[in-house]
Amino acid sequence: MAAFSALSVAGTAESFKSADGAIWERVLGLGLDLGNRTLVEYEAISPADICYGYAANVKASGTSTGAVVGFQINSYSKSGTGVRSVFGGATEAWTGDHDTAPDAGATLIGFEPSIISQRHDQNSALVGMDVPFKNRRDGAADPFQGLGANAYNRNSRAIQISSQARGTSGAYCGWRIGLQFTADAIDQTVDGLGIGIDMSAIPAARLLAAIRMPTAGKLTWDSGARAVGVIDGAFVYQLNGVSQFDCNSLGVVSAHGAFRALGSDPSIKIGLDLSAIPSGQLTAGVRMADESTLNWNGDRRRLGVIAGALRYQFDGADMMFCTSDGIFNVLTEYRVGNRRVIGPTDTGWAILEGAQDKTTAFNSATITLAQLGARVAALQAALSTHGLIGH
Hints:
Elements: E1 15-17, E2 23-27, E3 41-44, E4 218-221, E5 226-231, E6 234-239, E7 242-247, E8 253-255, E9 293-296, E10 301-306, E11 309-314, E12 317-322, E13 328-330, E14 334-336, E15 339-342, H1 369-386
């Protein structure tokens, strides 16, 4: 690794040498107009592990708790009538240079702020990059201009990712990935698992949105196999490009699979509530597919259309069913107030021969045996027809 034992560039110095033997040569004639300032450029003409333009070690020791700052550069815009850009600092990593196309590729890293934590019982914050917003100098109680229009943070962005526009040839220009975490970037600590992005400390009243997505933007997982976002004007969850459920702009939710509610929260009293919808607006509260059922008790109890009839089944056996002809069938009996009123057919009844009479109004005090027999025969026939009794 290159390290400078001493470096002083001034006057007519044309070259310098780093401790590992790398030779740096001064390159002049850049053709840049810097007024009365001289731009000095050096170029490595012999190999080195790392070539430093500027390097410094700033070390603190003793009992002082003051801050240690490797470098600080301030830029000020104090006056003027136009709108200027003020950069606190700018770094650029190139392949090639201002005037020459590169003859080899390179890994380019524009800026690398890193921390090296060597304390085993670390308790203080470890911050790779802090981007504070200020509207006054440190220690001041208020900005110079006071409250004013209070637009100090208008158009502010903590981190902005930008790019040049494409050139006239149409060559692609722009980041392939805006923000990427490498495999080892996030790790657990002695306090628990890691977190990719944490906005939990921000008061909810200050947030319009935690994340603002572009139109037709989506979040993806599993290398794009799973996606959630706005697709063709609807909010959609997709698996391998196929919608699993979606909600359109009218609030209609469509599922291409099954809904399943998990958990045992005692505060949940109603699974699906459509009671607030005026009945005249609904064609159906729930529309089922042909030959489909509602299931309970791990599918032991089923209600739905099975083999062309509406059936309630328990362990696969019909408890009751209604056919498309209006025939209603129950397994055992009907009850009212838990008292049986209709049960299975009482069989073994022999058929009464002779006349049947159900229309004549008899006087029970003067009815004859033949008339009574005709009435009983009519009753037996009626009960047999209804299936209450039978042969």
